Amino acid sequence: MSGPHDIVVTGIGAVTPLGENFPDSWEALVAGRDAQAPLERFDTSGCRCHTAASCRLPALDDLPAKVVRRFSRASRLAIPAAREALAHAGLLDAARRSTLRELPVSVSTTAGGMSFGEDFARLVFAEKHAHLFDQVSRYLPQQQVLDLQQTLGFRGHSFIVANACASGANAIGHAAGLIATGAAECVLTGGFEAIAELVFVGFDCLQASTTGKCRPFDVNRSGLMIGEAAAFLVLESAAHAARRGAVPLCRLSGYGHSTDVFHLTQPKPDGSVLVEVMRTAARQAGITPRDLAYINAHGTATQVNDGVEAGAYTTFLGPALGPTRISSTKAAIGHTLGAAGSIEALFALAALRSGKLPPQINLQTPIPEIAPALVGAQESVENPRHVMSVNLGFGGSNAALVFSHAA
């Protein structure tokens, strides 16, 4: 993505099961913490799986309590993460509202405010009619965008991606496209996902959730762990950032995406589409696979996904497999679905800036072909120049992002 509309990242923010902001989350991640815990927000007695990675909701003390009560859990995650990103970019005023009154938004989610929809159904079945309108009117995903705009004081074009587990990467890619084509100079982009009972039970019914530890890229992996998070980036053209004196954190230099049209829930077995998506992102960034210091992998710890993904990295990286380090952070924070591509992009970005690498925790017997590349405890790389974040989703969606040194 080079040329007159070079794209830079100037601010990041996140709420994850490991922390109420991005610095705390990153510190816990590289230390090898695991956020898996019993899920107590709703009854899981009829499920195989009873654990998840849940967030502690940050306080919104500057807002009236009656306003906060109207927010869905998804909004309670998204607002502080977006506010942190804008503050990091130098785009918040003293009242903690955006200094840009026009600010396009490109976000992703799977469930949106589905918990409100679930509450509506419970009230109907119980023949309780109080608050029915509030529940049904505020569960749609556009409501979370409206909550962001109203709370943070901006307006503008908004775009919501609901493309399964590659949504977060595609939302960032769409934001980059707006800047690359000159349609926008600055975009707030990212994703949010709150654990919803329907989604949790759905994955449990598919027997995709683990009853033990989440072990990506392990021969004896037994399934994914559901998580929740919100993560946002401020993307700008380099020229726009320079005009306002913002210091870029890095460049978003490459993006690739495609759909393999193979199966509703399984990736194409040969991984060929994922390989081509990674090659597209690398070509756009003007690099070769050996230039990548680190790849944040999708790595769900399901049998089919991790086998296909390991083979795709072997093909894509070739001799660079090993020197290029790989890990899946879902072992620590769970699969955050519509937020996965966004929070994992932030983790890759943080690895680029710090040289520290998220370890592949819970690993016992690594898949042999990818074993040489998996990150160990307290690993770091010196002077990384390029990193990649990779995501796959139901329906065969594949996406890859490349972040490069700001120089």
How would you sum up this structure, described in words?
- The chain is an alpha/beta fold and 407 residues long.
- The chain has two domains: 7-243, Peroxisomal Thiolase, Chain A, domain 1 (3-Layer(aba) Sandwich), CATH 3.40.47.10; 254-404, Peroxisomal Thiolase, Chain A, domain 1 (3-Layer(aba) Sandwich), CATH 3.40.47.
- The protein contains 13 helices and twelve strands.
- It has helices at 22-30, 65-70, 73-88, 114-125, 132-137, 141-152, 167-180, 197-205, 238-243, 272-285, 303-317, 330-333, 340-354, and strands spanning 7-15, 37-38, 51-52, 105-108, 158-161, 186-193, 229-237, 250-259, 294-296, 325-327, 386-393, 397-404.
- The strands form two sheets. It has a ten-stranded mixed beta sheet with strand order 5-4-6-7-1-8-12-11-9-10, with helices on both faces.
- A hairpin with a 3-residue loop joins strand 11 and strand 12 (397-404).
- The radius of gyration is 20 Å and the shape is globular.
- It starts with 6 loop residues before the first strand and ends with a strand.
- The model has no long low-confidence stretch (mean pLDDT 93).
Explain briefly what this protein structure is.
The chain is an alpha/beta fold and 407 residues long.
Largest sheet: 10 strands, mixed
Q: What value does the average pLDDT take? A: 93
The separation of the N and C termini measures: 14 Å
Would you count the extended β strands for me? 12
Class by SSE composition: alpha/beta
Strand order of the largest sheet: 5-4-6-7-1-8-12-11-9-10
Radius of gyration based on Cα positions:
20 Å
β-sheet strand percentage = 15-25%
Helicity level, as a percent range?
A: 25-40%
Number of H/I helices: 13
Please write the string of helix (H) and strand (E) elements.
EHEEHHEHHHEHEHEHEHEHEHHEE
CATH class membership of the largest domain: Alpha Beta
Question: Which fold name corresponds to the CATH topology of the largest domain?
Answer: Peroxisomal Thiolase, Chain A, domain 1
Unreliable parts:
none
Q: Work out the count of structural domains.
A: 2
Task: Name the CATH homologous superfamily of the largest domain.
Answer: Thiolase/Chalcone synthase
Tell me the overall shape: globular
CATH architecture of the largest domain: 3-Layer(aba) Sandwich
